[in-house]
Design goal:
By secondary structure, the chain is of the alpha+beta class. It folds into two domains: 1-123 and 329-395, Rieske [2Fe-2S] iron-sulphur domain (Rieske Iron-sulfur Protein, 3-layer Sandwich); 135-322, Naphthalene 1,2-dioxygenase Alpha Subunit, Chain A, domain 1 (Alpha-Beta Complex). The chain contains seven helices and 20 strands. The protein has a seven-stranded antiparallel sheet with strand order 12-18-17-16-15-14-13. The radius of gyration is 24 Å and the shape is globular. Bound molecules: FE2/S2 (inorganic) cluster and fe (ii) ion (FE2). The site of fe (ii) ion has 6 residues, from helix 3.
Length: 395
């Protein structure tokens, strides 16, 4: 799980004036629209007693915690504490992490990290969305799998004959021609191959009486979690975008958008949706059975061949950002913090405002390779050391 990237976390159409809870990167977030329609994304963890802001109510641009009514503005600062007399100052520490949010390509994107604006990678430039003649269809699919395993499946050319043999894969022609990986920029790469599909079925069968012509297929990925499948069919082009939203290490929700320039009437949507769902259902058992569940960091931990080049490019790029200290240490959160200590992904305000340096109640989610700062180690009731100490005091 990587911090410091823009994540497409929800469809635009699903974000309203009703606050909603989303779990992304193992973190609870609240998302809603302010009075101007702008998306707001904040940590869903009230710093008073850990209430869920998403269960609260909106008041203008602000959200009020359902537990004791503290009111927070979209920047994360608390602006009202009802239990205090009105003239009592609001503590500087009364603030939650708020994340930059933007709306693009039918998704709400949130920058989950603390890099200042100038150092942030940009939101991916996704092609085809500016063409109003394309038919757009959206949906989602839930996997019990890590998002990087799901993304790799989405850009994998060689699995089609084996996993999708009953739809578009062809076991008579499983060979993947040698291809080049083209880096679009340092955060994105694509590759194109020509696949030989089996005879057509269903609605498409009237178009091809016998053999289907070869299909040019392009797979593209954008760091950290977006993939695009482009299929050039004789009747037109189908593009399937996927924002593979990392819920936690073992759960992913792929929010997909299909853009097609054929069968652009609504009458074909049901068939198109059925086809997308069928592909996911074919992939699901295979992806969910992969071990280890998490994508290995060590490139030698799995054997790659030439046709895996597009996935290897993704792994290498991902490793680069893990090496830069962007990897959230989910293992440490689970094993050491567990349910005793809440952590949050640090927001840009933590770095941008030096005067707020000590104003954060919630601890930053630890990153891989970072030692736990002194004083952050958990002291729990019943800790063997503590019990020994208490015993020693008594003696
Ligand atoms: S827990 Fe949110 S106001 Fe008390
Ligand atoms: Fe697949």
């Amino acid at each position: 799980m990587l911090k410091n990237f823009w994540y497409a976390i929800e469809f635009s159409s699903a974000v309203t004036r009703q606050p909603k809870r989303l779990t992304v990167l193992g973190q609870e977030l609240v998302i809603y629209r302010d009075t101007k329609g702008q998306p707001v994304v904040m940590s869903d963890l009230c710093i008073h007693r850990g209430g869920a802001l998403s269960d609260g109510e909106l008041e203008g641009d602000c959200i009020r915690c359902p537990y004791h009514g503290w009111k927070f503005e979209p920047g994360g600062a608390c602006v009202e504490i009802p239990a205090n007399p009105p003239d009592r100052a609001i503590p500087l520490k009364a603030r939650v992490d708020a994340y930059p949010a933007e709306e693009r390509y039918g998704y709400i994107w949130a920058f989950l990290g603390d890099l200042p604006a100038a150092e942030r990678p940009s939101i991916p430039e996704l092609p085809f969305f500016d063409d109003p003649s394309l038919r757009l269809l959206e949906g989602e699919f839930k996997w019990n799998a890590h998002y990087a395993r799901v993304l790799e499946n989405g850009i994998d050319f060689a699995h089609a004959p084996w996993v999708h043999g009953s739809s578009f894969g062809n076991r008579e022609e499983p060979e993947v021609e040698d291809y080049e990986v083209h880096f679009i920029n340092e955060l994105s790469a694509s590759a194109t191959v020509t696949l030989k599909p089996p005879p057509a079925k269903g609605l498409w069968s009237f178009l091809y009486k016998k053999d289907r012509p070869a299909v040019v297929t392009t797979n593209t990925w954008w760091m950290p979690n977006v993939s695009l499948l482009e299929v050039r069919l004789p009747m037109g082009n189908m593009r399937l975008y996927n924002a593979h939203v990392p819920v936690d290490d073992y759960t992913t929700i792929s929010k997909w958008i299909q853009l097609r320039d054929f069968f652009t009437g609504g009458w074909a949507d049901r068939d198109a949706r059925r086809r997308v769902l069928k592909i996911f259902l074919q992939d699901q058992p295979t992806v969910e059975a992969q071990r280890p569940e998490l994508l290995p960091y060590d490139l030698a931990a799995e054997l790659h061949i030439k046709s895996d080049a597009i996935q290897v490019a993704y792994r290498k790029t991902r490793n680069k950002y893990l090496d830069m200290g962007y990897g959230i240490d989910m293992h440490r959160i689970e094993s050491e913090y567990s349910r005793h200590q809440a952590t949050v992904i640090p927001s840009p305000a933590r770095r941008e405002n030096p005067e707020l340096a000590n104003a954060w109640v919630m601890r930053e989610a630890p990153v891989i390779g970072q030692p736990i700062p002194e004083g952050h180690k958990l002291r729990r009731a019943g800790d063997p050391k503590k019990t020994e100490l208490r015993q020693a005091e008594k003696d």
